[in-house]
Amino acid sequence: TIIDRNDYWDDFKKNNWVYTRGPGSGKTWGEEVYDRKYHLIKPRRGDIILVRTGKQKGRAIGIVQKNDYAESGLNENSRIHVLWINKSTYDLSGHTDERKFREAKPGRKTYLAFEKTDGYKPSFHLINSLTGNSIKNGPDINEPPKPDTPDTPDTMKHSYSLNQILYGPPGTGKTWNTVNYAVAIIEDKSLDTIKDDKDARQRFDELKKNGQIAMVTFHQNFTYEDFIEGIRPVLKENESRDSQDIQYELSEGVFRKIADRANKNRTGQPEDPKYVLIIDEINRGNIARIFGELITLIEPSKRIGSKKDETTVTLPYSQDSFGMPDNLYIIGTMNTADRSIALLDTALRRRFDFVEMMPDSKHDRISTDIEGVDCQELLAAMNKRIRFLLDREHQIGHTYFMGVDDLESLEATFKNKIIPLLQEYFYDNWEKIDLVLNKNGFIQKIDIPEDLRGSLVDDNREVYELLSFDREGWKKSESYQMIYEETGEGDNDGTE
Known about the structure:
Elements: H1 9-15, E1 17-18, H2 29-32, E2 48-53, E3 57-67, H3 68-72, E4 80-86, E5 90-91, H4 109-115, H5 121-131, E6 163-168, H6 174-187, H7 191-195, H8 200-209, E7 213-217, H9 224-227, E8 229-237, E9 244-252, H10 254-264, E10 275-280, H11 287-291, E11 313-314, E12 321-322, E13 328-335, H12 346-351, E14 353-356, H13 375-389, H14 407-425, H15 430-436, E15 443-446, E16 463-466, H16 477-484
Helix pairs in contact: 6-8, 13-16
């Protein structure tokens, strides 16, 4: 949407609008030379606007709120007014269409370039979660929902990505949410419906027992043989039964087992049973080593049932022909405090959709009054400081405070979870930890002994230590209130 070789992004960003041909011209390239089927009068409320500069620089994603061109015509005062949901600049994953203002349909270069760019993926996920559809020119958001018809089965309303990773800081409920995602996928229901269903966990356990759900946790020593298949030694009694011999057998891994079950029950019909493989801590494993040649097969276009590019491979141990079924979903979790998406294996990033899960300080299961302590305010204040002192990927998740309902449990949470987590985040930099806690007294500055001053220790050096766990400061509600109160410049020395 950037025209005549000038960059008007600053004006777009500031005023929440877009136009073409420069300020005030009110003309569209579609009218003059290009793509006569799509003009500025066509975008309507609820449509998505993708803004770029040149062929490979993305600028923003926005939602149309109002189109002056459709109401007032192509005059110098007309604009397309938008609500920006992502105003960050990223190098796109590929080149966009050469033509300027045009419809970015799914499958076209511009759409794909934005969709596959890591920085814009969360925006696509947000829109999809709100609409239940991919980014496209859909119906007006004010139109009433249409009833189901034979051409619009219920399965179309709850489409989920075949490969997705829930990512975010520790304690944001990623692993817990895989339960909701798995049940929603298999039962073809909306995620919100499952989240409100108290029996979802029980049905998850039943589905897991029946073989429709499998779980595995990646770690540094996890291998292809653990995941797909391999030759493993087994002990068997010999004929004399007084000793055991070592024999070798073909062993199938968790991925091969559930994929075989999904393939066996696949007919290519919409009512085929769905299967879900949950991979916890997916970023901790060596992806190339674990997936091997099968990393290609998990792509939707390569799966069994794809008309585009269905692919099979011969497995190295069993020599079986193997293909990835299109009714098997993969859900991974990733702790961003361990590893950023930028450092993630490129093959994995390209084949998975990423769903960001950040701390929710307003979660209704976090208490607002524990003897006067507002844990929601406390968590929000600590995370605000962590974002500036470190980054947003190392915030403290809301689950750390869920179920904390008295001062004793709050004390235990800080001693056993929060303080160790902050030590890990800041590499025992107690000065920064003290700032996160708003100098509430948990971190004490100590004097350097006289015999160490001078030649051995710099007189200007500041030394800190953690308040002893047996001190009363840990038991006082004032200590925790000071973390989020603006007046809290810790005069708390841990005493009564």
